[in-house]
């Protein structure tokens, strides 16, 4: 009855007819107390309409889906769909944050009750729990990531029709964070770094078999510092991805790199300083194949498919940074291999390069460069547009001071012709 929303049935050994209906998201059952089917239908119809009226008057609240149900449904899809565009580490951390922090707090809460106030309560509870355990609150980036996951679950529930609208989850105050720069090497520090790696490459630190590792590390510092590649992009580089070209616009010999990494496929044009490290690396990879017993013909066929940096000596790199006092910048930020990319971008801005072209060459956005790099480069400030001074006479007029009267000769000179 009522297009299938109300059912009247009788069990195998029962004498009276039963009725069942789904109203407000919940299932209701009742006995009509009638053995005659026609009278049972009338009773069931009255019962169903009475339930509908109770829902409309608020006497029966519709059953809402909980946040935990939406989170489970979202994670089932995320493990399958996000795996094609996200790394396994991202899915692992997402699952960990959901199970450890988010679902235990929001799990049984109906979706419409997850609002800005409840999320703010979560922020406070999360900070209190972390302070009690570690002595300091969670970092701003950690909390931002968890709020993003909460918003993703709510957005998924809205798409399924479980939620009427997406609530505003922004913080009620202190939404503007401090302006910070990425950890990078100043020109003097960068020179100190590649001087130290060159010294290690020449001496090999007295360790057997480490000479080639230090040579690769030295060339890595020069190559990435002159190209701005991300660590994952440099790790994927094969020799066939790089071409030496004579640039028509500048007349310089540079490298054109077919980059594959975080943002997909793109191109990068390096500084001339990357050419010689690249040539040394190619010769070193060819020598390794020669020592493996390959002929010149086999090396010619195999060499283009060899990775330029088979392995990055992270421990050796960190040891050199510590020995040179470069592991942390003056603000306490840790420098890593990623800092070489930040150094490239910052140095290009210091030299006055076009910010849009830098964004294209580094496969990032102008907004990211403006926020994390350009705002901290002193050469981006034009003193000719800042240190302007009006003539003294104009300043006196602006302040309301009388201007000394002109002589008769000055009046004749100022009179219109």
From TrEMBL:
<feature type="domain" description="Tyr recombinase">
    <location>
        <begin position="180"/>
        <end position="388"/>
    </location>
</feature>
<feature type="domain" description="Core-binding (CB)">
    <location>
        <begin position="65"/>
        <end position="158"/>
    </location>
</feature>
<protein>
    <submittedName>
        <fullName>Integrase</fullName>
    </submittedName>
</protein>
<keyword id="KW-0229">DNA integration</keyword>
<dbReference type="InterPro" id="IPR011010">
    <property type="entry name" value="DNA_brk_join_enz"/>
</dbReference>
<dbReference type="GO" id="GO:0015074">
    <property type="term" value="P:DNA integration"/>
</dbReference>
<dbReference type="GO" id="GO:0006310">
    <property type="term" value="P:DNA recombination"/>
</dbReference>
<dbReference type="InterPro" id="IPR010998">
    <property type="entry name" value="Integrase_recombinase_N"/>
</dbReference>
<feature type="region of interest" description="Disordered">
    <location>
        <begin position="392"/>
        <end position="417"/>
    </location>
</feature>
<dbReference type="InterPro" id="IPR013762">
    <property type="entry name" value="Integrase-like_cat_sf"/>
</dbReference>
<dbReference type="InterPro" id="IPR002104">
    <property type="entry name" value="Integrase_catalytic"/>
</dbReference>
<dbReference type="GO" id="GO:0003677">
    <property type="term" value="F:DNA binding"/>
</dbReference>
<dbReference type="InterPro" id="IPR044068">
    <property type="entry name" value="CB"/>
</dbReference>
<keyword id="KW-0238">DNA-binding</keyword>
<keyword id="KW-0233">DNA recombination</keyword>
